[in-house]
Request: fold
Amino acid sequence: MLRYFKYLLLSILFLPAALLALEFTPASPQVEAGYSRSLEISGGEGLVLWSALKGRIEGAGDRVLYTAPLQAGTDVVTVLDSLAQFAVLSITVTPSVQPPLEVSMENARWQIFSNRSKIQSIVYSEDGESLWIATQGGIEQRDPYSGEILQVLTSADGLPYNRIISLTSDGNNGFWAGTVFGLVHGEADGKNIHTIYPSESTDLYDDHISALYLDNQHGLWVGVRGSLLYRDADEQWQQWKLTEVGFPESDNEVNRLWLSADESQLWMGTDQGLAWLERDTETWQVFSPDNSPLQGRIVRAISGDDAGGVWIGLGAEDETGGLAHRDVNGAWSSLTEQNSDLPYNYIGQLLADGEGGLWVGMSGGGLAHLDADNDWASMNHYDSDLPNDNISVLTKTLDEELLIGMSGWNGGGLALFTDLTDFSAGEIQVLDTSADRIPDNEIQTILVDSQGGTWIGAGGFLLHILADESQVLFDQSNSPLPVNDTRVMSLLEDVDNGGMWVATLDNGLFYRGSSGDWQQYTVDNSGLPSNQLYELLHDNEDGFWITTKDAGLVHFDALATGAWTVYNQDNTGFPNNRIQTLLLDEDDAVWLGFGLDELDPGIPGGLARRDQLGNWTFWAKNASTLPDDDITALLMDGVGGLWIGTRNQGLLHWNDMQQMQAHFQELPEQLPGSSIQGLMDDGNGGLWIAVYWSGLAHRSNSGVWTHFDNSNSQLPDESVAVLSQNVEGGLWLGTQQGLAMLNFGEKNKLLRSISEQSARDSLLQERRAALIIHPSGSGSGYNQAAAVDFMATYAYRSLSARGYDNDEIYFLSYKPDIDVNGDGQSDLNVIDAPVTLTQQRTGTPARDLQQTDIEIALRWAKNQGSLDQPLVVLFIDHGLPESLLLDPQGLDSISAQALDALLDDYQQTTGNSVVVVLEACHTGTVAAILSDTERLVISSTDAQLAYYDDLGRLSFLKLFFDQLRQGENYQQARETVAASLSGLRWPLNQQQPQLYDEDGQLSYACLNGCFGGLPGLLTLTVEPPPSVVAPGQSLPLQVATHIGSGSVRNVWASLSTPEVASQRNEFGYSRNPTPNFYLRRSETGDWQGNIDAFNYQGDYQLTVKAEDNSGFITESPSINLKVESGIAIQGADFDANTGLLHVPVVTLANTVGGTDYFQVDLLLEDRPDGLLFNIDAIDMLSGQPGGVSYANFELSSGLLYVPDIQLSSEEDGPRYNADLQLMADGGLLLQRLGQQ
Reply:
């Protein structure tokens, strides 16, 4: 058939135009490359067949959908009817500014936005390695010292629901979590999350877990609505119904549980009072305002008083509340605003200070402290840096500071109070480490405006993400939106006047003008028949349509007459007044989808159409045309037909004759469910479908179905309710548990910044491939694995930003659940081997890499065939001379010679050039061996160590990819980074990156082509601090940020201290965390904070860093500071008179994954073959010493690295570092001596 049409086309081209009786609409169409539009023919008879020379035709008859080819130019469409009439249409295919996205499961890239600012509970793991935080958007695992988010656990990881109400430790570094759908347990790494209750005991009272407490016997106390439960270590359950305990009503919530120090007494706070259980006798006593001095019934907080008594925190709007105290002898006292200096009566949390005093967190009143002398001190967000006055959690940190969790309608978050001994000296440090936050998790509406911004209605909030990705939140503080008692349901842009219409449920209609002024329309001051509004839709003239929940349809002629017109059941014949969706078709007719009446579900719904003349047509429920009259979504199909989403019968398709052409129900090969919430055109003739509680479905223009749910995506939950196209051609998805953005690569975003057509064509048409090799970075350095993970993900993000899709990157990693985009959640379709995230979630354990994995990866690279760009190979982890480690214990490695052979085989097979980048110690020795023709090899260092600070955010690889992102070629990037490293403090300034390019050509190539730098460069301006600092001084810092596009997530100061610099392991990692100080944005837009880690005498280096919304980090030039007095770090000491080298600490990795510490004395022996040190004395130390410089012995190589050596006779003289090689006779030969 296609051959016939092509022959016919050639014949038609030579016919006179008069012979062609058929007429096309439009007559001279222009279509963007890759996009679709409808075409019509008139004058045809009978069956009409269509054909396109280059593009694609969907459908038949008088109207079809045409999709243009991806290349610009001219296409020809041919039509033939049953009378052998034929016609030819020439179509101009214009270059596409943004090609339509190809839906690909492998290239799906998710970014999740959720409200995790409302903190419910905080728990430290027993080993001090994790900080678990319960939020309304999942469970965060953070670094306990820096506050960095390590991962966020959600329903995708096994939680039954993302809203976490309560949290406690499991006694084994894992956690117990309470949700509205039951009790779950998670192990120390956050894996193997599974629901324990109600599955273990289905006859228990409720699965709304509101309070948890773990006792010393690993028994778990569980508070649920109406009951208290106890699960012992043998998994046996016991239950006390609250009415049996002594409370009057069964509808009673357990808010707080607390055990006395000897665990003989359990205290339980509820909505109806306080209960006390004497465990030995199982005797209960209930306290309320009726029988005690309690000034309220709702108990929200309980804490011991360090003397055997108990503090009670109360709080409710209709009660006095405040504090109550019961001492060890049973005597009661009460403290309120009225009889004390307690600032506020609504108590959120209590914590004994260990000195006879009490920390008090108030829900709306900030933070207060009552000392042992009964003196009060307090702070709130008006008189301090406390960001929120709604304090829900208080706990002591491992560093003996106060960690504050906040919650409330205007957000919350985490903050530190730095001084527990002196309230006046303490400072607030805000831990704001993620900007992927939204004000509420229940998304109602999304609108992308004409300026490229995005408006999101969430709960009673309105969030505006501008085109430059900065954000404005509208709430009670800057708008009349009544946050607490409404929901933003729909948005409509007033394009001509720069305004925005906002429809709400219960509070009518709002208008925000271009100048920021607001106006509200309700039943009291307008023609609205109801304040319960659903949807807004422009009428293509001067007004818009409004649907209501209970009062029918409204037309508002806003720009002309200001008239309001109401259509309802009484005056128009509607089946009912509940209109759930509406649509304007190509003829400007209005379609309405009715829901079932809430008060009387027996009243039918159905479908209606109003034409331009005001004539109404109604369709009721009918098995052959409309099998469900609960209509939830409507969408035109582009060729005169209609897609209809229903509540119970799935998806319907009507043709242009209003006949049911297809009916898609819940079938594995079609829809994942039958309740449709939303429909959206994909711009390429396909259809996106939001399926309630069943995720997201896509039907391509060729009828291929793709499903996204919790098993294969990162949807916050499967209750997708809102769909909208984002500015990159992907999707915004609104759910009940958060917001998701789905894209299929970064090419469209990148194309917006490239104007040269040849560069645009190269990006879309060229073939490319990259390979990332990422073994486990575990080791004795502080959070060493996290540092290596950061560098690997930073490389991945950089490749992605320069135009590499997921299927063009082979990511070989030990960590299947890695987070590459920085939203805290594991990213699907990123790790390709040896274990994927999907495999891990179905039971396959993660494992370390092996050489065979690299061989398989290079076989994948071969299968990519001939490339237009060099194959990029990255190795990021640990190295030894002439080899690269594949596991942290050194049990498996790949030699430089073996890797060279694999690359030789790849290049001989494909003829492709290769760029190799090595980030590991000693990689200069590997790079020299890998050097070859058509191969560029770059190493982070020479034969010596490579160094990393700030969890990898100060490293060769990070700095190198920063330069590649900005368009520098490989040679320029290496030179820039080498210069940057030389300006850093010791030991990073010892690092010498290497470059090998035998042909002298590849080093001038750029990553994925030399099309320039990426947009949105973030720069910093730092107000210079004084160069000399006193010991213990707090140094104020002020920073201004400048960004071309996008937004700034975080700004922090990283301080390299003498202690961090001097305590490094055998791979160059610091054994101590680099102190980071997060700055807070001031009202003027600058970022401010204080630096207070100047504890030792010596040199410091301050670097200010800022992270943008894409996860890329910019740093300021380093600032050198000095502490001239105080205690100095103790290094190794060499006595030239005796030849004795005293090394205060030598570290050695032990066989169980830890580190042993030794003190060693070495005696110098001058021999003809060099300087040899013999061991004179060695003592094993208990614990990890502080205030000293660490030397490291690397067992696999026999190398002792001594980073800091001082001559005894020259206290203020130069300092040195040295490498000593273990010899066969047990001596240590001096290999290298360098000066710091």
About this structure: The longest helix spans residues 784-801. Confidence is low (pLDDT under 50) at residues 1-19. The first strand starts at residue 23 and ends at 25.
